[in-house]
Structure formats: C-alpha cells, structure tokens
Design a protein that fits this description.
Blueprint lengths: L3 H6 L8 H12 L15 E5 L4 E5 L2 H12 L5 E4 L4 E6 L5 E6 L3 E4 L4 E6 L2 H10 L4 E3 L4 E3 H9 L3 E5 L6 H14 L10 H11 L1 E3 H8 L5 H9 L3 E2 L13 E3 L26 H14 L9 H13 L23 H14 L8 H17 L5 H4 L5 H9 L3 H9 L1 H11 L1
Parallel strand pairs: 7-10
Antiparallel strand pairs: 1-2, 3-6, 4-5, 6-7, 8-9, 11-13, 12-13
Helix pairs in contact: 3-6, 6-9, 12-13, 16-17
C-alpha cells in the first residue's frame, strides 16, 4: 500500500466523484479484503508489485496476466487486487431481483478515472451470457456484467470485463521480460539509442539479436528498455522476446496500455503476421479454424485435432504452435542385423506347435546375442547391446497374427483368426 507521502501525490483528481474517492480510500486502508480462493479450478498466483510495494494475488492465470499489464502500464497510478465488495442486484432464474455482494478482480486508479476490472475466459463469458442473460450480455465486441456496471456507475466509476483475447499468454510472457529490464543496473548501452534509431530508419526493421551485434552491446537489456520506453516498436502479441534471433523491432513509436474506456488493449504492431516460424504456422491454423483460409492439403482430422487443442486451452494461440521437435528421433536405432536376429529367434521359439511363452523366447534371444557377440564377427550386431524385454514384446506384437496362429495352433485357429480380422 502506498505511504502517506505518496497518497498526497496520487490523490484522485477532481473529475472522480466523491463516492468513488471514498471507495478508493477504504480500499487503501484495507487492501485485499478477500483473500484469493484456492478452491477447485483456481490457480492462485502471488505477484510482488514494485509499483504498489506489496504482494498482490490472483485467482487464475488470467488475473495474473491482468496484474502484469497493470504493473506495466505507466498510466496506472495504483491498482489493488480483490478490492472491497460492492452491493449489486442480480436476477434470479425466476426473474426476481435479489441483493448480493460482488468483488471485482482489480481496482485501478488512473489520473482521471476509477475502474473495476473483471477477468474471465471467453468460454466462461459465453456460458454466463447463455445461462444468465439478464445479467450478462455481449454487444459483439465486449462482455458486460450489468449489475456491476450499474453499481460502479452509481458511485462514479467504470466496470470492464477483459477476456483471454485481450490478455494472451504470449503478451504476459513479453511483459515479464520488459518489467525485468526495468530492474537492470546496466545503463552502458543507453547512449547508443540514437545509433539504434538511425539503423532502424535505414533498414526499416531488424531482429533484436542482429541489432545487438551491430550496436556492439553485451546484452539485450538496453533494447528491452527502449521497447519499454516506446522509442522503438515491437509486436508484443505475435512474437516472443525470449527468442531474440527471431523477434523483430521497428522505428515507429507506440505505447501499450489498458484502454480507459475498456474497449480493447491496444498493442504495438509492425505487421499482422508474426516473424516466429512457429507462430506463423499457429496463425495459419487459426485462420483455417475460423474459415478465413482454405488449404486442401490439410485433412479434416487435423482440423478437428487443432480445434480440440484450441478450445481445450481456453483459446490460447500457443496451443496451435507445432510441436514436431517433441516427437523425438524416428530413425531406427536397432541395426538391421540385430533385427534379423530378433525375427529369427521369434520364428524358432514362438512360431512352432510347442507353446513357448515370451519369457522363454527372450532368454533364447539373450543367449543368441551373447553367442554372436563372443564370435567376434565384424558388424553392428557385435557392437550393439541386447534390447530390453518391453522392446522384445513390441517386436512380437508386430508379427502377423494369422501366421502366428497358423504356426502354433493349426488350420482351425488360422481360419478363426482370419474371420475375426475380416
């Protein structure tokens, strides 16, 4: 909570009503009256705010992103989490009004206005608009919680509902990088700002890594501070600052802030398409899901899988980023001579009328491998280690069922297996 000296400086201006001033004063005296709930579905976050000089809490990932944006926005003088509840009139299912208490996710104080923020995911807002249509509405671009808006308007404040579309995960990640750059004590590269602007005016735009090399900077902290101050522009929603080799910046100056009227969160942008190859593919998939782009090479199965990933992640575009690098090495690691030995052991022990089990076959395989290794014959079989028992079982499962049944049980079992496979 701000000290008394700071309170005198950030006192609400005359444009804020008397009721709103009294509400702000009560919240200042008793910040975070309701502790963050750890119930089912809640993921509590604690954020140490330098602007407020205290630890703030959020009940969801989306509320944590909102706190980051409020901390970053220089137009925000003060902000509080879980402020004092306000009295509202909600509509029950039978249409009758009933009094209730409503606690916003954040109270924001600007120089000329007081705003209550509510952070919810789009899917939750759609469900509320469907189930509680008298209280929750959607005008095409914004969601409205009518009881809270009426209560806020009565005391001269505003109420705004922000969603995950306004606060994407990639934006929160970039804001964390920019906020950490404010704590850096290395100001040796700040004198090269004019040289940086000259380079960007000549080339139009450049990656952070290339710009650091051309300016002979030891770190990227000066460039992050220039982005934070608005000297150079960057697409904070489409690129990742943690990848300086692909993050591109330009020379146009923009600012990032939470809109006072609550319309949208304006974000700086060089181009609509991101430069990160993974994000480019994610945006292409998102356009296919929205029907804005048609690609005949994409199967319906892939589109269904992308839709499940997108909806399951609360419509986070990062869920559409390709994860090919997680598939691992698909080249066979067992040499061909080794595979032939495994196949030969399976044919000798399992494809016979004698009912041998897999454990006996694996023991015969280990003995055959040991004999081949002790013979000192040249080749990959001598140099390779024996496969594990689970790998041996997978090789058994890869055998043809019909031929296996025919070898072990005769013609009757073979015909039965063939009919079941058809």
């Amino acid at each position: 909570m701000p000290t008394n000296a700071i309170k005198a400086v950030v006192r609400p201006s005359a444009t804020i009503s008397q009721l709103a001033r009294q509400y702000v004063d009560r919240v200042r005296l008793n910040p975070s009256r309701r502790p963050a709930s750890t119930g089912m579905g809640n993921c509590c976050y604690r954020y140490a705010s330098q602007k407020m000089g205290c630890v703030l809490m959020g009940e969801s990932t989306l509320e944590y992103r909102l706190l980051l944006l409020l901390e970053y926005d220089r137009g925000v003088i003060e902000y509080y989490d879980q402020p004092e509840p306000v009295s509202v009139q909600i509509t029950r299912k039978d249409g009758r009004l009933t009094p209730s208490r409503y606690t916003a996710d954040a109270l924001v104080l600007r120089g000329d206005c007081c705003i209550l923020y509510e952070a919810k995911y789009v899917k939750d807002c759609d469900a509320l608009c469907r189930d509680r249509s008298n209280d929750w509405t959607h005008d095409g671009s914004l969601y409205h919680f009518e009881p809270a808006e009426r209560a806020a308007k009565a005391m001269g404040a505003s109420h705004i509902v922000v969603t995950d579309i306004d606060l994407p995960a990639i934006l929160a990640e970039n804001l964390e990088c920019l906020l950490s750059s404010r704590d850096s004590l290395d100001f040796s590269g700040d004198r090269k700002l004019s040289a940086c602007l000259d380079i960007l005016r000549d080339v139009g735009e450049s990656t952070i890594s290339s710009l650091r090399s051309r300016l002979s900077l030891t770190t990227v902290e000066p460039i992050l501070r220039w982005i934070d101050a608005g000297h150079i522009s960057a697409d904070l929603k489409g690129q990742r600052l943690v990848i300086p080799e692909e993050f591109r910046v330009g020379s146009r100056c923009h600012t990032l802030s939470v809109g006072q009227a609550g319309r949208e969160v304006p974000v700086v942008a060089l181009h609509d398409a991101p430069r990160d190859s993974g994000m480019r593919e994610a945006y292409r998939r998102l356009q296919i899901l929205r029907g804005e782009l048609h690609d005949s090479d994409v199967s319906k199965r892939s589109i269904r899988r992308w839709r499940v990933l997108y909806e399951g992640s609360d419509r986070d575009i990062l869920s559409l980023v390709p994860v090919v690098h997680r598939r691992g090495n698909r080249t066979p690691r067992i040499p061909e001579d080794h595979e032939r030995l495994i196949k030969a052991v399976i044919c000798e022990t399992l494809k016979t009328p004698i009912a041998a089990n897999a454990t006996f076959a694996y023991a015969r395989y280990l003995a055959a491998h040991k004999n081949a290794a002790s013979s000192k014959c040249p080749g990959a079989l001598v140099e390779s280690r024996p496969v594990s028992f689970p790998t041996f079982l997978r090789r058994i499962a890869q055998q043809d069922r019909v031929s296996m049944a025919s070898s072990r049980s005769g013609t009757r079992s073979r015909r039965r297996r063939r009919r079941s496979s058809i």
